[in-house]
Amino acid sequence: MRDSPRPGTVPPLRHNVSMRCETVIATHTNTDFDAFAAMLAARRLYPGSVVCLAGSLNRNVREFYRLHADELDFVVEASRLELDAIRRLIVVETVHAGRLGELEPVALDPAVDKVVFDHHAAERPHWAAPENIVVSEDGALTTTLVGVLAERELAVTQVEATAFALGIHEDTGSLTHTTATQRDAEALGWCLRHGAKQDLLSRFLHTPLGDAERELLSTLLESIEAHESAGTEVFVASAKAGEYVEGISNLAHKLVDVTDAAGLVVLVEMDGRVFAVTRSRIPELDAAALAAVLGGGGHAQAASAIYRGSLVEARRLIVEHLAEAVREPARARDVMSMPARTIPPDETVSRAMVACQRFGQSGILVAADGEVVGAVSREDLDKAISHGLSHAPVKGIMSSRVAACDEDTPLSELQRLLAGGYERVAVLRDGKLVGVVTRGDVLEALGERAAAPGRPTFSLADELAQLERLAPVFEAVAALSGDFEGVYLVGGTVRDILLRERSFDVDIAVEGDAIALAQTLADALGGRVRAHEKFGTAVVVYGDGERVDVVTARTEFYDAPASLPAVEHASIREDLFRRDFTINAMAVSLKGGDYGRLVDPFGGRVDLDAGRIRVLHNLSFIDDPTRIFRAIRYENRYGFRMDDHTASLARGTIEMGLVGDLSSARLRDELAALLEEGEVEHSILRLAELGADKAIHAHLAADQEAVALLARLRAVARQYEVEVPAWHLGLIALARKLPPDEVYEWLQRLKVRRRDAEQIAAAVTVGPRLVERLRDRDVEPAEVVALAERYAPDAPLYALALEDLEPLHDYFRGLRDVRLEVTGNDLAQLGLDESPRVGEILTELRRRKLNGELDGRDSELAAARELIGR
Questions:
Q1: Is the pLDDT of residue 137 over 80?
Q2: DSSP sequence for 301-360
Q3: How open is the CA angle 472-475-479, to the nearest 5 degrees?
Q4: pTM over 0.70
Q5: 555 - beta bridge partners?
Q6: How far apart, in whole angstroms, are the C-alpha atoms of residue 545 and residue 531?
Q7: Helical (H) or strand (E) element with 16
Q8: CA distance 24 to 86
Q9: Cα 472 to chain center, whole Å?
């Protein structure tokens, strides 16, 4: 509970005079441990900032702070701040400016830069720029910020680690809340490794009740009333307190434990106000929506409010508006599988088993004339087969005890039926079977597992059949994959199949031993294998150099932003989750039993249809900033766009300076790939729009001028058939404003090959000088060649793109191809000994030929004799 401000509840603060602070970190009034810990973590991310308390601390937080005040002396009370001096406001654990107390005007001041961190937020604050808003799905916001601290390898004190652990424990119910995630558990482990004290965790998480609190708890227990809406039961407890009692949230927690309530509202009237706490343990009830009825807020699982009215009025408002906070629960019609697979009573045991195998079911219903008469489990079928009863009718072993319900049955009732020992529930309409609900259906509806992998919701079998060149590979894999848990076509091929693009890459992921599959596949195709045991990968080469990459399904962990990942074996879902975007996180099963089934756990197909680039999780760009460049390339290639959230995450990663942390070779490769993608106008402008150009180098210019210049460079190169890498031209256009002394140094940092770096650097530095030398002078052809040839082709191309100069047109039209017909051997035959004089004479001969003074071998020989005779 976020308790109300009360005189004497705020601990004495270290600062007793007004303070001028440019960067301030704040949270909602009535600060709990997650908010307090998140502020401490944010302070590590923003050195020089101060943590500001704009209200009271919950009792356990206050006691913790008092104990460690000397170590946390950067905390300041809002009333001590000079608000007009604040230039940046970091807000954690709320998106509502109204919950910031005295700092609300600062949050609403457009002149102040705002950064917001929250989790499970249902809305985005209008008072902060979208790119400055970070919303995670972690159970505790502290987890999100601890993740950033870990990735940036920032040191923390033992006290801070303890506070972080307390915040995570409190907001996740020590990892028991449904909102708790694996990241929360990993963050707790990180806190323990950094010195979090277990004795303090126990002490401050389980605050003992005082006499007044025990008395109030007893009164609240006696007052509980049950109210139901849309099948959801919510307990409402209310009481008047004769004196102010702290820790209403602690009492709510104990009431939930005692009553096992799915939803709870606690209302306590004291000091002329009603303090409300709402709790929800089910997805159908939104605790924040209930608190909002009384003017409060919070998250879907926990929220609070302070109502300036009577207890009776507060209770009436809660009951009247309960339906607005309850979502219509999922019902049988929403979760059932259709059509319901059935067999007749006279079907043989063996055919019943085949049906179970075909549809990936643990059992099957038995029906006669449209009515359910029984059910048989796969286990019983297997036993019957082992007893030699394969051809016996299934009615001999089926169970006539079948659970049934109608289409309106709520999910909670389905859970009860399945928990009672039934394998499946038949869904009936007017006595006729219309569907079936299994444990898998219920788990999927509860969000506790991904869509059942055996359910062929969408197949690409027909599309695979059209890839005739790959037919032998797919057929061989289907035949050989029986002993493997899963074998999938993954990567860009799946995306390109759905986009009807031609793709010739074959990447196969195996849930199991990828090298073993690769070896058998090579035998079947008459090819050979190159295996990499360390990484669990292999390449199968067959036919005329065709190749298939086979890898073990794996997951990745990034120890630090922009670093290379550590790898572990995993399921196909985990393998897909490590990828960059939803459109690349799809797979197609190549196993014979469900050949062609699309595995799309993250909605990639929908995003493809919508032309949307979307990351799989909020830290995707932080894990690997090169994904920003890849997103821009996909936008350019397919005409897609990043969704607002993804673009916001990209900007945030760039602003954190993580693009500059990339290894130089990776950054070079991504830039080159981006600039090689055909028409790149969108890509160049998008670099500037996201701020990536300045993150790469402060003087890089990805603007409209760069776009126009690159178009001219490419046009001239095409006109004169000049072979020059497209990325050369792109870098020239982008780097044109770099000072000469920085160009080559920057290209060296990018680890550009020396020859390429010299060409690009010369273009940027020498190209403009060529324009100056050739613009207003009569220059003989030989001098044009002498000026241009040393830096060709990049520098003269750039010069011609800068200004339409006829001498350079002459150079590309033919001067660059002028060659002598005589050689050094000819000069030797004329009596000239080997010496520097040979080169000098050949240079002079070429100068004369370029200027039109020589025509053919005879004239060259005559001129050579003359020069030798001098």
A1: yes
A2: SEEEEEESS-HHHHHHHHHHTHHHHBPPPPBHHHH-BSSPPEE-TTSBHHHHHHHHHHHT
A3: 135
A4: no
A5: 568
A6: 16
A7: none
A8: 7
A9: 36
